[in-house]
């Protein structure tokens, strides 16, 4: 599968992409741990089948010190022992917030209560925004068939 459209070479797409990427700065400046942000982004991207974003968030997480074992187990986090209760709550929120069409209620009350137990107001806001942002990013990349494999950590720093 080849990319259908190069979002980095079209003026409109590039302008949008820069502004879109800059929204992530708010999340980077939040108190939500980078490891949690990358794990949530990775899990949503796995669910959405976004090779570009799986590539990006795996590499960004590794660059930030995440272990290969934890990265390998994100897809099966419920059946693993390497994630904290707080991370498990964030991963559940990522899954339920990504699979909206699969659950008539969206995010369950149980998951919401777990998230509220482990994260403060600002971190909850960051998590909710992150789930929305990564799902939008996945859709952009999947629509144009942006393939994974070429991402280099920090390559969008110039967008800031």
UniProtKB/TrEMBL annotation:
Q: Where is the Carboxymuconolactone decarboxylase-like domain?
A: 25-96
InterPro entries documented for this protein: AhpD-like, AhpD_core, CMD-like
Q: Which GO terms describe its molecular function?
A: peroxiredoxin activity
Q: Where is the signal peptide?
A: none
What would be one Pfam family of this protein?
CMD
Q: What is this protein called?
A: Carboxymuconolactone decarboxylase family protein
